[in-house]
């Protein structure tokens, strides 16, 4: 009886060690695959970004599918691309969210972020969104309700927020 108990214990210990060795081996392979896949997606993402580098005045009629232009490019791992037209809402100081066709993307602002208004964020109604606004204007007006805008991001930080003029304004 003593040998039966001992053999069961040894069998359980061996099975546990074999299972742990198998799980460890799978993790090493998975992390190698992630690195290869990440490198491939970074290369592909970098190739298609040049179309998103327009000026703010020319960007008032942004791509209809620009929510699909997002990528995970850059050292910081933040998202880069053009998101919009969508709705920008305030989350916290220097932190916002843009909602485009049911997809939400959070982003940060910095002192280098350009904000262009079309009458809601700041200034008089201007369908070309050429009014230069401050980050304080964006914060104040996105707190009271969403602002229709297109956001250009690099590494998770907005480089430009361009308000989309409403067709019935003016």
UniProtKB/TrEMBL annotation:
The keyword Transferase belongs to this UniProt entry's keyword annotation: no
Bias (Acidic residues) ranges: 55-73
Signal peptide stretch: 1-25
Region (Disordered): 33-83
UniProtKB keywords: Signal
Cited PROSITE patterns: PROKAR_LIPOPROTEIN (PS51257)
UniProt biased composition (Low complexity): 33-54
Protein name: DUF5666 domain-containing protein
Transmembrane segments: none
